[in-house]
Amino acid sequence: MTHEQAAYLELLARGAATEAYDRPVLLARASGAGPEELAGLEQAKQLALRVRAELEGRRRREAELSALFETAHDLAGLRDLDDVLRAIVQRARSLLGTEVAYLSLHDPVRGDTYMRVTEGSVSARFQQVRLGMGEGLGGLVAQTARPYVTDDYFRDERFQHTESIDSAVGDEGLVAILGVPLTLGSQVIGVLFAADRRARVFEREQVALLGSFAAHAAVAIDTANLLAETRSALAELERANDIIREHSGVIERASEVHDRLTELVLRGGGVHDVAAAVSEVLGGAVEFVEERPAPARIAEGHAGRDGDDWVAAVSAGGETLGALVLRERPDLDPVDLRTLERAALVTSLLLLARRSAGEAEQRVRGELLDDLLDAPDRDPGRLRERAARLRTDTDAPHVVLAARIDRAGAGAEADTGGRESADRQRLRSAASHLAATRHGLASARDGGTVLLLPLGPGESAAELARQTAKHLGGALHEPVTVGASAPVTAPLAHPGRVGPAYEEARRCLDALRLLQRQGEGAAAEDLGFLGLLLADTRDIEGFVERTIGQVVAYDRRRGTDLVRTMDAYFASGMSPARTKDDLHVHVNTVAQRIERIGRLLGPDWQSPSRSLEIQLALRLHALSSAVIR
């Protein structure tokens, strides 16, 4: 390495500007260096510039990721929606180094998006513009839920130009615009933009960066909205507290109960905690029951007598969720009666909150499984992140299971329509609960339900299928048939394996139904040679092992000839006399061997169904042995 070539290492070490890399070549040329030396220096220069560009790119990506993490941290600390929106737009402008950044939100009433926050904007008209679905670049992003970028807005014909939008963009002087969707699940809640007043090409990395930032921003917006709703609810609750405190000492007990119930709710108490608290205050026995409705004469939201008990309906939106029943109190004053009614209201809120949380988690688990089945080309890293938020083990082997309710006459016309739809919903709910408890996923599909469940230590796919059929059938009080795939290793890292596994599980499910084994659970390994045909893996060695493995192992240990005896026995039409001729042994020897085979394979090994599988296993074993030789 020459002194001049070593100079490039020194330039790289101190992060010199691009222009400095020409100096060693110029100095060498000035000192009269030959063509070969100049060519070597030029080659070293180009290599150094490539290394510098790579280092610069890595530093830039590191800075972008650092800024993204800082942004997520900053957004997590904000609580007011306006503060969150302003922080989003300011940081988006800073991240991409654009002159203008702005954010529009979806208006569900009018069905369009409206400008909510701008940063760097100078036009009043631009700050008030509205974009219909498909109108302008932002309307196209909101309509398709995909990012769009244009380096010259007014020359771009991919989206619909309108006079009002183009005038607003013209007033602002924008030329290059990048827009990415703000999404929650499958819903577009707005669009985040970065724009310049000059022609500019937004790199793919910048589009991805703004998209990642938009994902954080959407969660922050949703969190701020939820916090605002919570604050509003708490404010309403506080106003109710103020009204109660204004009353005289006659209703102090009601105020105390209200505070206790509020504390229960805020610390995550359940329905039975509410019943226990009210029992203590009222001096009776309060119980929540799901089946007992309030008498017809008792209006919703009120309590009344029902025989010797006091009953307060627990209901919401006309739906009866159960009742609070107070026993051992023959009389109640108005304050105590109101306390029981308030407890019923709190109970209904707790039940609705629990239902909403369960439905939300069920929906999220279903969306993730649907993405694994329908979009296996999704980024595995993003899928693993979503699974981790659901506390799903992303590294354990999983099994895909297809489940369906099977009852007598399930295909009859009388069992279609409303009842079939209700069955599917019940099955989906039970499967979602099972998936949540086992840290798996579940979704409705093809008239039934599909589950993706992790295998426990030492557990097989067949055992998991049987357990799932038993669990779902017990929960629904209906026979539920479950087909299972072979284990899928790390499905979140390899999403393309989930779809074929689901098809295998469906084939097993259909086979169980054709075999009149409704209400059972099985994997391909349970179905003998039929399972060999159904399975994607075509595990011939496993089929042979499960079918005649004990006989093969016995021959290997003892040096006997039971496998050949079985082959000759079946070839001779299961005749011991003809078998002994083929083997050139005494008929008693054949009888002894057949008896030994029966002890190894079970007394039904000569039945039509077992003998068919055994003959197939013998052929496959012979073929594999011939290949090995």
Provide an overview of this structure.
There is one protein chain. The protein is of the alpha+beta class. Helices cover 56% and strands 15% of the residues. The protein has helices spanning 3-13, 23-30, 35-76, 81-96, 124-127, 136-144, 163-172, 204-246, 252-266, 271-282, 334-374, 380-389, 418-437, 461-476, 498-514, 528-534, 540-558, 562-571, 576-583, 587-601, 608-628, and strands at 100-107, 112-119, 130-131, 148-150, 176-184, 187-196, 285-289, 303-306, 309-316, 319-327, 398-405, 441-445, 448-454, 480-484, 521-523. Strands 3-2-1-6-5-4 form a six-stranded antiparallel β-sheet. A five-stranded mixed β-sheet has the order 12-13-11-14-15. A hairpin with a 2-residue loop joins β12 and β13 (448-454). The two termini are 59 Å apart.
Topology (elements, then pairings):
Blueprint: H1 3-13, H2 23-30, H3 35-76, H4 81-96, E1 100-107, E2 112-119, H5 124-127, E3 130-131, H6 136-144, E4 148-150, H7 163-172, E5 176-184, E6 187-196, H8 204-246, H9 252-266, H10 271-282, E7 285-289, E8 303-306, E9 309-316, E10 319-327, H11 334-374, H12 380-389, E11 398-405, H13 418-437, E12 441-445, E13 448-454, H14 461-476, E14 480-484, H15 498-514, E15 521-523, H16 528-534, H17 540-558, H18 562-571, H19 576-583, H20 587-601, H21 608-628
Parallel strand pairs: 14-15
Antiparallel strand pairs: 1-2, 1-6, 2-3, 4-5, 5-6, 7-10, 8-9, 9-10, 11-13, 11-14, 12-13
Helix pairs in contact: 1-3, 2-3, 3-4, 3-8, 4-8, 9-10, 9-11, 10-11, 11-13, 13-14, 17-21, 18-19, 19-20
